[in-house]
């Protein structure tokens, strides 16, 4: 397995991984119609997003052979400051991490997290945070095994008209 920076050429495979991961991990937490309506191909907007990556955000992909089996996005915690204020001491954020369900529990998620946490540290972002859907035991187990714990913060996100409660986890100091 190889971890590398994502490119616009990875967009379709990244979206396929995300869609498969959401359908497997969030069944019962997210409305079935929303999961069924997830795209299987990247939009032009997403390809452009990968092409114009900003300095304070990055995406990594995990490859096995010629295939993308997972990806993760990292940035600063936008709840704390805007881009102009982001810098050393600003909390880092695991924006997303998805591994195709066929490759769960085989090290791709941990390898992506290792690369992303290292990148966040290089930017001076600390502590590292992530938002998870409340009730997602798959997500909770993954992050807790990595060293995250709940810090008590809560918010909701909107997804296709549904309000989804989320909980914030923070990476414990090592």
UniProtKB/TrEMBL annotation:
Keyword DNA repair annotated: no
InterPro entries: Acyl_CoA_acyltransferase, Bact_Acetyltransf, GNAT_dom
N-acetyltransferase domain mapped to chain residues: 1-170
Pfam families documented for this protein: Acetyltransf_1
GO molecular function, one term: acyltransferase activity, transferring groups other than amino-acyl groups
PROSITE patterns registered for this protein in UniProt: GNAT (PS51186)
Keywords, sorted A to Z: Acyltransferase, Transferase
Keyword match Transferase: yes
PANTHER family documented for this protein: ACETYLTRANSFERASE, AMINOALKYLPHOSPHONATE N-ACETYLTRANSFERASE-RELATED-RELATED
Protein's recorded name: L-amino acid N-acyltransferase YncA
């Amino acid at each position: 397995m190889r971890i590398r920076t994502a490119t616009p050429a990875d967009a379709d495979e990244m979206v396929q991984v995300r869609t498969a991961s959401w359908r497997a991990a969030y069944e019962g937490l997210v409305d079935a119609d929303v999961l069924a309506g997830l795209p299987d191909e990247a939009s032009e907007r997403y390809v452009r997003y990968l092409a114009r990556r900003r300095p304070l955000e990055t995406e990594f992909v995990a490859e096995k052979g010629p295939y993308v089996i997972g990806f993760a996005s990292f940035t600063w915690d936008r709840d704390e400051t805007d881009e102009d204020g982001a810098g050393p001491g600003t909390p880092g954020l695991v924006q997303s991490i998805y591994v195709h369900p066929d490759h769960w529990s085989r090290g791709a998620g941990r390898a992506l997290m290792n690369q992303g946490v290292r990148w966040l540290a290089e930017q001076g972002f600390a502590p590292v945070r992530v938002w998870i859907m409340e009730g997602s035991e798959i997500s909770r187990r993954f992050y807790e095994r990595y060293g995250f714990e709940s810090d008590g913060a809560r918010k909701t996100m909107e997804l296709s008209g549904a309000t989804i409660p989320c909980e914030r986890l923070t990476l414990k100091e090592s």
